[in-house]
Amino acid sequence: MEEHLQALINFLNDQRFDELSIQQLKMLTALGADAYMGPAGAEFVNDVVRTSNFDPATAAQKITEAMQTLSKARASFTAYAEAVKNLGFEVRDIEDDEDRIIIRIGFQNDVSIDNVTDWKDAGKEWYEIIRGLAMACDEKPEDVKVVGTATGSIILILAGTVVFTTLLARISKNITSVAMDVLGVRSAMEDLRQKGILTKTMEKEFRDIEKSKRDSAVTTIEGVLAEQLKGKDGEINTALVKSIEKLLTFSEKGGSVDFVAPEENEEEEEEEEGDDVANIKLKAALLEAREAIHEYQGQRLSLKLLSDGTKTV
Q1: Which end of the chain has fewer beta carbons closer than 10 Å to its terminal beta carbon, N or C?
Q2: Residue 147 phi/psi, 5° resolution?
């Protein structure tokens, strides 16, 4: 029993969602399936089966309900795919370019685009963001291509160079870390409030800590990128700081940044005979980009789990 249980928990913990977009992950949430998949699913199984007041009948019922939810979600996706196929829609894949990585920018919540004025303002903001990051990579803003759009909330699909995307992923990871710190402070404050021991003085101190973490975010991220920015002139640093500030604001207002990680290739890490210098450098850059994207996605998942846990307090 214990061996099979641990195997299931290990399987769930090892589930990867790297190639799913934020919108696809939201669909799993809407169907209630995300609570039973990945690390969240592993935690669910562990809590149900290994709880101190374990009741076999109750545990069996909860596991059955989870399986039913997953089965319904799978049936919904299958039915949707079949309906789209029957309507005769053709899926137009974005052209694959080995030296570019897909970036998905989601305009929702307080950064949603509802009219032409919003569209103009969003374009201006993202031009400044892309310009600062591109300059830090010794590239031009126009090196980032627009390759598609999607609806729901408006999603702009970009194709960034490997170096540009790696930098954006690193910054996004650190912005997510700041969000986790702020959420942790807020959670601690609400915990004291629920216990009835939060004084006005304590609340003010918590608010000050929260503000301090936000205010120091840009400086913290600059420190993380110090090595990459070594030797860059003042104009580049100024432009990058502006990009980071705008990305922070975009994130705080509910906007999303997502990446499609480059596919793993077992031969990628090995230098093949006949590889030229450019190809060797590209392989190394793709590996670095993939690691940066995976780190960001892992941090994003941790933030979601922390946020979900906070909501249940």
Answers
A1: N
A2: -115, 0
What residues does each domain of the chain span?
2-86, 93-313
Residues near 127 by beta carbon (within 8 Å), at least 6 away in sequence: 141
CB 288 within 8 A of CB 101: no
Distance CA 251, CA 274 (A): 44
Q: In 3-state terms, what secondary structure has residue 256?
A: strand
**Computed from CA positions of residues 218, 293, 298, 26, in that sequence, does the dihedral angle turn out positive or negative?**
positive
Q: What is the reported pTM?
A: 0.75
Give helix 234-252 / helix 116-136 axis angle, nearest 10°. Answer: 140
**Spatial contact of 147 and 102, defined as CB atoms under 8 Å apart:** yes
Strand partners, 129: none
Strands (E), the chain: 100-107, 145-150, 154-161, 256-259
